[in-house]
Amino acid sequence: MSIKREDMRINLPKSEIFYYEDFLAKQEADDYFERLKNEIAWEEKEITIFGKTYKMPRLTAWYGDAEAIYTYSGVTNYPKPWNEVLLSLKERVENFVGASFNCVLLNLYRNGRDSMGWHSDDEKELGENPIIASVSFGGERRFLLKPKDKKNPTRGEILLRHGSLLVMGGETQKYWQHGIPKTAKAVAPRINLTFRYIGG
Questions:
Q1: CA–CA dist 158, 166 (Å, integer)
Q2: What is the per-residue pLDDT across 170-186, written as a single tens digit (0 to 9) for each?
Q3: What CATH class does 6-196 carry?
Q4: Please, are residues 145 and 12 in contact by the beta-carbon 8 Å criterion?
Q5: Which of 11, 29, 42, 118 could form a disulfide with 163 if both were Cys (CB 3.0 to 4.6 A apart)?
Q6: Rounded Cα distance, 66 and 64, in Å
């Protein structure tokens, strides 16, 4: 990872987190949002927790190289092939971050009731210290961070804006969890892409 702006670093211990609010200009971000909304094969998947099956509180999609098979929350994802809009974004992100990615998880939060529970991107397929590059479009949502050490009171929060880029690297996934909470506020739909590298 070759981050260019150290002043954009989020100051949390045992982490490497960088946030770029204006990664994409507004018109570019608007165009990407519309294309992603219309050109991605969105799915409403189910997860099983303690023997009970629930619909995920968001729509998802998994794209990437053919070998980029990924299992999380008990669901195995087989990638759909890259399309033009995803390859365009992938190139932009790779050039900026200085890292290569071979897959992307997409989430569509339809309203404030859609959310992402506490988790770490620490599955073995991602390697020991993965780089996760997250691009957000549409409605602004709170991105929360808390340490895995329950005795540590430190917390982090970032408001993920339209066209922004969040990069997590180093030991972030080893020591931290993150999530997108539900909100009772009226919020516009949000699309988020997290670029990753599986294997190797």
A1: 9
A2: 999 999 999 999 999 99
A3: mainly beta
A4: yes
A5: 29
A6: 6
**Half-sphere exposure of residue 69, counting CA atoms within 13 Å on the CB side?**
5
Exposure class string for 59-69: b at 16+ Cβ within 10 A, else e: bbbbbbeeebb
Per residue in 98-115, pLDDT (tens digit) is 999 999 999 999 999 999
Per-domain residue ranges of the chain: 6-196
Q: Which of 50-64, 138-152, 154-168 has the lowest mean pLDDT?
A: 50-64
Which residue in 69, 170, 165, 79 sits closest to 123, CA to CA?
69
Beta bridge partners of 119: 178
Asked if residue 137 lies in contact with residue 192, where contact means CB atoms within 8 angstroms, the answer is yes
**Parallel, antiparallel, or unpaired: how do β-strands 59-64 and 190-196 relate?**
unpaired
CB 140 within 8 A of CB 162: yes
Backbone dihedral angles phi then psi of residue 57, each to the nearest 5 degrees: -80, 50
**Token couple for 62:** 């998994």
Residue 120 and residue 175: Cα distance in Å, rounded? 9
Q: Which segment of 27-41, 59-73, 135-149 scores lowest on mean pLDDT? A: 59-73
- Residue 136's nearest CA partner among 6, 18, 29, 45 is 29
Q: Would you say 193 and 108 are in contact if contact means Cβ atoms under 8 Å apart?
A: no
Where are the extended beta strands (E) located within the chain?
9-10, 16-20, 46-49, 52-55, 59-64, 70-72, 75-77, 103-109, 116-119, 132-138, 141-147, 156-160, 164-169, 176-180, 190-196
Q: How far apart are CA 132 and CA 69, in angstroms?
A: 16
Instruction: State the Cα–Cα distance between residues 138 and 32, nearest whole angstrom.
Output: 10
